[in-house]
Amino acid sequence: MKNSFKETIKELKKEKNILILGHRGCRNSDIPENTLLAFQKAFEAGSDGIEIDVESTSDNKLVVTNRWFLKQKLGFFPWERDLNHIQSHGKQKNILVPTFDEVCEFVMGIPDFIFNVEIKSSSNGYCRTAKEAAKQIYKFGIENQVILSSFDVNTLLTVK
Q1: In sequence order, what are the beta bridge partners of 149?
Q2: 71-93 b/e (C-beta count within 10 Å ≥ 16 → b)
Q3: What is the pLDDT along the chain (160 residues), one digit of tens a residue?
Q4: Measuring CA to CA, which residue among 121, 109, 119 is closest to residue 145?
Q5: Type and span of the H or E element at 21
Q6: Are 134 and 159 in contact (CB under 8 A)?
């Protein structure tokens, strides 16, 4: 008989000492990725944490979404619209796009949960997204739970 997802994660952690992170929460399930429900599902399945992407909106708010997922599902990139527009259009398609604050608050509620935050660059040479994300992480007191990552060297230097 095939093990459940939760049982498989427990076995990996016990036998292999492997850290399990839910990419965008719990993808390929009945819940849209990068939503608070997907993060809760990853936690309930026994993952050690989650991996998320943080993007800036046109009104300089931080949202948790994958740019290509948003473009495919809603027709635009996060930086092309303001927060209200993104969230209202998301709700119409049952995609509840959370703010970075909401996700930080979720992580704060689970003290041992790992939070892998991939910062997407918001401009060349200066990354407002990285600076704001770091401020929020410290505001919520979750810095000991966070792994920051980025593909962009300027973003990494900004955070450092």
Answers
A1: 118
A2: eebbeebbbebebeebbebbeee
A3: 456 666 776 777 677 677 888 888 877 667 888 889 889 988 888 888 999 999 999 999 999 998 888 999 999 999 999 999 999 999 999 889 999 999 999 999 998 888 889 888 655 545 888 889 999 999 999 988 988 888 888 777 877 7
A4: 109
A5: strand 21-23
A6: yes
